[in-house]
Amino acid sequence: MSLYLLINIIILSIPLLLTFAPKVYYYRKMKSLFIAILVISSLFIVWDALATARGDWAFNEKYIVGYRIFGLPLEEILFFLTVPYSCIFLYETFRTYLKKREVFYSVHLYNILAILCFAISILFINRAYTATVFIITGVLLTSARFCFKSLFSSSIYWLYIVVCTLLFAIFNHVLTSFPVVAYSPQAITGLRVGTIPIEDFFYNYSLLSLYLIIYLFAENKWGREQ
């Protein structure tokens, strides 16, 4: 078994085992989850495939099984299934057991952060990964200004982000320390937290937020499954 495949299995294992647990009833949320995965994973897989082909990052054959889809290792495709499945499970668990509280929300703060992200993307326009991830983050923060105030002012959302980011840091440290994934110096700033490129934290934040936004949109559109 490859290291990357093992990481996917570990990420998925507990949420999968608890899918039919009472109170959360995660199995009843599969329609909304499927839509979120279909929409967001499809977009990010396309980006991933293009970036891999361009040489922004590469995968160490020593730590993957060797099967590829769209030029991506099988494990990389699975990542876009196991991560949303597990992270949305955490969100549903928090939502079930914890009381939602409003947290600080400032339109001006989100405007400033969005402008800062766009400025960084322009500053590093020749660094493909850096520019792309900061553009996406900037668009997300801009949307918080217009569309998602109730989500971005929710304590459950920020707990979801914090916990998933901590877990991300653990698993991504493994991926980048062996390394399973190696980044081209021409695609990133070179700033790292340990072995993790700083861009990965913004990538993770945007990915987690977009999965949740589409998940909640689908839930509101077709009704929350009971």
Automatic annotation (TrEMBL):
Matches recorded under InterPro entries: Lycopene_cyclase_dom
Lineage summary: Bacteria, Bacteria division WOR-3
Ranges annotated as spanning the membrane: 6-26, 33-50, 70-91, 103-125, 131-148, 157-181, 201-218
Pfam families: Lycopene_cyc
Keywords assigned: Carotenoid biosynthesis, Isomerase, Membrane, Transmembrane, Transmembrane helix
A cellular-component GO term for this protein: membrane
Gene Ontology terms for molecular function: intramolecular lyase activity; lycopene beta cyclase activity
Cellular compartments annotated: Membrane
Lycopene cyclase domain boundaries: 2-94, 126-217
Topology within the bilayer: Multi-pass membrane protein
Pathway entry: Carotenoid biosynthesis
Name recorded for this polypeptide: Lycopene cyclase domain-containing protein
Source organism: candidate division WOR_3 bacterium SM23_60
Domain of life: Bacteria
GO aspect biological process, one term: carotenoid biosynthetic process
